[in-house]
Amino acid sequence: MGKSIDIMEIIKNIPTEYMWLYGLAAVVVLWMLVWLWRDNLEIPNIGEKYVFVTGCDSGSGNLLCKRLDRRGFNVLAGCLTEKGADDLRRATGPKLKTTLLDVTDSASIQRAMEWAEKEVGDRGLWGLVNNAGRSLPMGPTEWMRIEDFHSTLRVNMMGLIEMTLTFLPLLKRGRGRVVNVASVLGRVAANGGGYCISKFGVESFSDCLRRDIHYFGIKVSIIEPGFFKTAVTSLEPIERELHRLWNQLTPEVRESYGEKYFDRYIKVQRFIMNAVCDSDLSKVTNCMEHALTARHPRTRYSAGWDAKIGWIPLSYAPAFVIDSMLKFVLPRPAHSVS
C-alpha cells in the first residue's frame, strides 16, 4: 500500500521565504480559471435576437453573416451592391435579410435604419457590426492629395460614426452590442494615407462610446485584425493605386524620391502581403461572433497571430523602435538627408 499524500505536510515543508511566491501563483491560476469560465458564458435566446452587419458583399462581413445565420440569429445584412445581396441570400436561410447600404450616404443610412426598425419592432437591435471599410490609397504621405484622405475617412470613420449614431435608438431598445472593426494599424501607424488615421479614429470613437453608453446596457467591442487576404489587401489594386499616386506627383517630387525608390516600394508591398497575410478569415469572425454571443464581451479582440505577437506588443514600444523597424524595411529616397 502506498502512502497517502499529506497536503498540509507539504505546505509546512515549504520554506517560509517562498510562501508568498506560491500564494501569488495560486491567485494567478485561480484568476485565469475564473476568467476562462466567465469568458465562455453565452447569452440565451439567440433565435430571438437581431444583428445588423455592414459591408456584407464579401470578406469577413459576408462570412460573419453566414455564421450568424447558422447560429440562428436574425441577420440584417447591409450590402453595397445588388449582386452582393443576391449572392448572400442564396447562400443563407430565410432568417437572413438584406438591404442596399452605402455608409458614405446619409440618406442610405437613414433608409437602412427605418427598414431595420420595421424588422426588429419592439425587440430592438441586439447587435450592430460596423464592418464596411476600404484601405486605398495607401503610400508615402507626400504622395497623397486631400481627396485621397477623404475617400477613406468617409467610409472607415465617418460612415461608422454615422451608422452608430443613427442606429443607437434601436440598440438602446434592445440593450445590445456595438462591434466596430478597427485594425492593428489603428494601434501602429505603418502606412501613409487615410487608412491608419481612420482606424485610430475608430479606436478613439469606440472608447468614448463605450464609456458614454454603458449606462443604457449597451456594450462596445473593438476588433483589431492583423493582415488577412481580402479585397483590402489584394495586390492588384494596391499597385494600381501606387502607380496613380506616383504619376500625379510633380517632376520635382518624383525626382526627390527616384524611380528606384518607387520600384523597391512596390516590391516591399508585394513581400509583406505575400508573407504576412493570413487566408483564414474565421480568426476575425470568431472574434466578432464572441462579441455578439458572450455574456461578458471583451473590450478589444486581436485577430491573427501577427496581431497577437507582433503589432499589438509593438504598439506599447517606444516610438523609436517602430520608426527604426520601418526605416529598415522601407527604401530610402534618392535625395534623403538622414
Overview of this protein structure:
By secondary structure, the protein is α/β, with parallel strands linked by helices. It contains 13 helices and 7 strands. Helix 6 (146-174) runs parallel beside helix 7 (194-213). The model has no long low-confidence stretch (mean pLDDT 93).
Order of helices and strands: HHEHEHEHEHEHEHHHHEHH
**Spatial strand arrangement across the major sheet:** 3-2-1-4-5-6-7
What helical percentage do the residues reach? 40-55%
Tell me the major beta sheet.
Answer: 7 strands, parallel
Mean pLDDT: 93
Count of separate DSSP helical elements: 13
Structural class: alpha/beta
Termini, distance in Å?
77 Å
Number of DSSP E strands: 7
List its traits:
338 residues; 11% strand; alpha/beta; 55% helix; 7 strands
Q: TL;DR?
A:
The protein has 338 residues and is α/β, with parallel strands linked by helices. 55% of the residues lie in helices and 11% in strands.
Reconstruct the topology from this structure:
Elements: H1 7-13, H2 19-39, E1 50-54, H3 59-71, E2 74-79, H4 82-90, E3 96-100, H5 106-120, E4 127-130, H6 146-174, E5 177-181, H7 194-213, E6 219-225, H8 235-247, H9 251-257, H10 259-276, H11 282-293, E7 300-303, H12 305-314, H13 319-329
Parallel strand pairs: 1-2, 1-4, 2-3, 4-5, 5-6, 6-7
Helix pairs in contact: 3-11, 5-6, 6-7, 8-10
